[in-house]
């Protein structure tokens, strides 16, 4: 009976997969070898809204001048082509760490898109792209604890790594069965607020936007993640790195870039994310990091070499998120037993200094880092 139950769970959640090897992933890094990055157009921001198993998100990361760090996110999920669900998430980290984090996560009803699939709407929630494609307006009254009214404007070009920002999964490159895509606005201006029960939080400051599509079961695509969002007065440094499960050869895929006001400095797949010190988490055995070393490499449009580093201690974590906390206990045990899946996200927000060299010029500037280390399986 238990084996049957595991198989039924695998059919939907994907708890088991054969070993295909690294040749079964066509990393976006292959594209980036000849085309490091492609600037985004308005059309590149359309929702895919796939009919098969997938998770698609639009996430707005917020770094307020007040010191607050926040996030507003729409998640559009399709389970095996059987059921579609939508969720709106809001999170606020308070400066100083004395006020508990604010977290709101609410299912959305009556979800849909405009004809061009550029705007998302649901009951009490909307994410709309401006006519010229230069800013989003995010509004949500789905939760009285966090009423969102934000405007996020792009102040440097958006990009995808390679030609289309997509890695493909499958043993036949002509007929992939899965995909992973990330599109970025690395440097944004944020206006507006999040109204909480304790008062209104002004989120005027900087931001980062990412549109992500996992066109397959998420834990089949990646076993662990590193996410990097650094914002300073002059520079933005962003990165998304994941390592596939052994079924795809534990292959690392990295996309990221550097920007300043009005321009991309460089972007592509020649970056790296390392945990230079392991703190460890005795409660669940994951190797929680204590310090990091993030590096970017590329070339400017006029051919100058670019190298940037962001290194240092993470300090106290902002939060540790048990992704499966709301899953019924017996399902959680089956999933963990069948696949080793027990996803946790570790979140940090230290002040660090970006060191960047463009050609022969070297610069250093302190800013705010928001970073996540995610362990899935």
Automatic annotation (TrEMBL):
Q: Name one GO cellular component term.
A: Golgi apparatus
Q: Where in the cell is it found?
A: Cytoplasm; Endoplasmic reticulum membrane; Golgi apparatus, cis-Golgi network membrane; Nucleus
Q: What topology does the record note for this protein and the membrane?
A: Peripheral membrane protein
Domain (Svf1-like N-terminal) spans 55-214
| UniProt keyword list | Cytoplasm, Endoplasmic reticulum, Golgi apparatus, Lipid transport, Membrane, Nucleus, Transport
Database matches in InterPro entries: AttH-like_dom_sf (IPR023374), Ceramide-binding_SVF1 (IPR051385), Svf1-like_C (IPR033394), Svf1-like_N (IPR013931)
- Svf1-like C-terminal domain ranges (all copies): 216-377
**Residues passing through the membrane, by range:** none
Its GO biological process terms?
lipid transport; response to oxidative stress
Pfam families linked: Svf1 (PF08622), Svf1_C (PF17187)
Write out the function statement from the record. Answer: Ceramide-binding protein that may transfer ceramides from the endoplasmic reticulum membrane to the cis-Golgi network membrane, and is thereby required for the biosynthesis of complex sphingolipids.
Report the sequence similarity comment from the record. Answer: Belongs to the SVF1 family.
Q: Which PANTHER family match?
A: CERAMIDE-BINDING PROTEIN SVF1-RELATED, SVF1-LIKE PROTEIN YDR222W-RELATED
What protein name is recorded for this chain?
A: Ceramide-binding protein SVF1
